[in-house]
Specification:
The protein is α/β, with parallel strands linked by helices and about 350 residues long. It has 2 domains: about 170 residues, FAD/NAD(P)-binding domain (3-Layer(bba) Sandwich), CATH 3.50.50; about 130 residues, FAD/NAD(P)-binding domain (3-Layer(bba) Sandwich), CATH 3.50.50. It is built from 7 helices and 22 strands. α1 packs parallel to α7. The longest helix is centred in the last third of the chain and has 15 residues. The structure holds flavin-adenine dinucleotide.
């Protein structure tokens, strides 16, 4: 590969970072640029719950030391949001009006928390948990033995819930359609897993429909969640955990096929010959299921980054579209998930 070859990666999460390193290992000469909207270097989002468990600064969560990027000659453009991609002229256009040319492009832009329509108007009164800054905001809003109200109940939220309970906070979960997402469970399994959640110290509220999130009354906790038919609960923080929405608006019009995610073949190539995708942003063609599917989990998204990188540097490797994604009860009697095996 020639020295002027420029590989641009949109995203500096697990998938994009694994890809950058693999590309460098396979091609010492090419130019690698990672573009990220994040202000911070790569922080493992899986470790974010640790801000409630002794982690006091973002440096403690860095996936790689700062010198790693110089050593591997990987340029990381932080605080740079991609506005759109001009696939015809092979350019990435940044929101601050700069253009970055590429020879090959990897889209590893992940996703953000999905918010069901009925909850959107209450967003300003709820807390997200996708970035270090958001995690710190939640910590600041929670008094000692504070009360967190979670809406939905996807696996990211349950991961945080077990840490919050372990450090002495209370968690009430108002169950939504996304309970245990992305796992699919039968009704019988669901009842069993719910009782295990309760044994883990999480208060589970089933069959409650949220109609509003409001500011708390005078002398009361900061928020109130109101239920259909009357009643509600008070808490210090309200957090929606309702699954994931791929971040790919900037790819609309970029000569790639999109369903809910960016569609790729098992070699992780999009319908454009110069563009690949990896991580939470993409849906991979599964010959077994005869459809495009999302695949999650730390190991898997890293594997996607690696395989995309191999194929971008002249290899030809397919990702396995079989994944064991069963929720289970571990030896400690707690629910556990293959998605949580990231350490
Ligand atoms: C608190 C928490 C706990 C979690 N725990 C688990 C867990 O236990 N197990 C598990 O499997 N998963 C867990 N997840 C989910 C996990 O973090 C994601 O699956 C994983 O981070 C996806 O990696 P990714 O590289 O695809 O995308 P991300 O890590 O989401 O990275 C996306 C990157 O793209 C950048 N980006 C996006 N849009 C743009 C744009 N327009 N311009 C420039 N840059 C852009 C972002 O800044 C970021 O750098 C957790 C998530 C959170 C928030």
């Amino acid at each position: 590969m020639s020295a002027e070859n420029h590989i641009v990666i949109i995203g500096s999460g697990g998938a994009g970072s694994e890809a950058a390193l693999t590309i460098r290992q396979r091609d010492p000469d090419c130019h690698i640029t990672q573009i990220t909207g994040s202000k911070l270097p790569f922080i493992s989002r899986y470790e974010l719950p640790q801000v409630f468990n002794g982690v006091s600064g973002w440096r403690e969560l860095l996936a790689e030391p700062p010198e790693y990027y110089d050593k591997n000659q990987i340029t990381v453009r932080r605080n740079s949001w991609v506005d759109h991609v001009d696939a015809k002229n092979k350019k990435v256009l940044l929101k601050h009006k700069e253009e970055v040319s590429y020879d090959k492009l990897l889209v590893a832009s992940g996703g953000g928390g999905y918010l069901p329509e009925g909850l959107r108007e209450f967003q300003p009164l709820m807390n997200g948990f996708g970035t270090y800054e958001q995690a710190v905001k939640v910590r600041q809003a929670l008094p000692k033995k504070g009360h967190v109200i979670m809406l939905g109940g996807d696996m990211t939220g349950l991961d945080l819930a077990r840490t919050l309970v372990a450090v002495g906070h209370r968690v009430s979960l108002v169950v939504g359609e996304q309970l245990f997402w992305p796992h699919e469970v039968t009704d019988d399994q669901r009842a069993k897993f719910v009782s295990v959640l309760e044994d883990m110290g999480i208060k589970v509220m089933i069959d409650k429909k949220v109609t509003a999130v409001k500011l708390g009354g005078r002398g009361k906790p900061a928020r109130r969640v109101v239920f259909d038919g009357g009643g509600g609960i008070d808490g210090d923080v309200v957090m929606p955990f309702c699954g994931l929405m791929p971040s790919l608006n900037f790819m609309i019009g970029a000569d790639v096929d999109i369903e809910r995610g960016l569609l790729v073949n098992p070699e992780l190539k999009t319908t454009n010959d110069s563009i690949w995708a990896a991580g939470d942003v993409c849906q991979i063609w599964s010959p077994e299921e005869n459809s495009y599917l999302f695949y999650y989990g730390w190991h898997y998204i890293k594997e996607m980054g690696k395989i995309a990188a191999i194929n971008m540097t002249g290899g030809k490797k397919k990702i396995s579209t079989y994944q064991d994604d069963h929720l289970y009860i571990n030896k400690q009697g707690e629910i556990d998930s293959p998605y949580w095996m990231y350490r």
